[in-house]
Structures are given as C-alpha cells and as structure tokens.
Design goal:
This protein is mainly α. The chain is built from 5 helices and no strands. The chain is elongated.
Length: 116
C-alpha cells in the first residue's frame, strides 16, 4: 500500500492563487466556506462535473462533514482556553461570565485532573 499526502489549503478569507492541479483546486473548493449550492454550481460550471443526484448528495455530505469538524475544533479550543485559565489560577467565578458553559468548564477541569 502506498500513501499520498495532498496539501489542501483552506481559502477562508485569504487571497491565495488557485492550484494548477484541477483535482486539488476542486478539493479546495469543496472545503471552502461557501454553501453547498454554490459549491455545486462552481463544480459544474468551472470543472464540468455533471451534477447527478448521487454527486449532489455526496457534496452535501462533505459540506455537513466539514461543518461538524469545524464545530468540534471550536469546542476543543473553548475547552483548551478554560484549561489555560484554570492553570493560571483564574477562579471559576471569573471564567463563567466570559460566555462558557458549565459543561465546558467541567470538561476542562476533568481533563486537567486526568492529565496531571
């Protein structure tokens, strides 16, 4: 079995040149922050993909999947922020009014105790 690593850049807000490799350019389009309808349109018009029901469904799944990944990374970062505050002895009473939930605080606290 051979492995391949493909560097797919996230074009969120930054102006980067489109890849000269059509496959990489399409993949970068798929992970962009555009909605599924716009992605489908671009893939059909720019890259000539025929939008079948099956392909549309797969694009929708990929869009949903990327949103889930983004949500999980935001949750992880929020918990990591709480962990850092706990580590520098900021009391819970000062952390909670910053918009964190009780669940997030408990996860951060238990993570610190498990890892110590």
């Amino acid at each position: 079995m051979k492995d391949i690593i493909v560097n797919i850049r996230n074009r969120s807000g930054e102006a980067i040149k489109e890849s000269q490799n059509a496959l990489i350019a399409m993949l970068e389009e798929l992970i962009s922050e555009k909605d599924a309808a716009e992605k489908k349109y671009i893939l059909a018009e720019k890259y000539g993909l025929k939008m079948t029901t099956e392909l549309e469904g797969r694009i929708q799944i990929m869009c949903n999947w990327s949103e889930v990944i983004e949500e999980k990374s935001v949750k992880r970062e929020r918990i990591a922020a709480i962990e850092r505050m706990i580590q520098v002895n900021i009391p819970k009473e000062q952390i909670m009014p910053m918009g964190y939930t009780e669940e997030e605080y408990e996860k951060a606290e238990s993570s610190l105790y498990v890892n110590s």
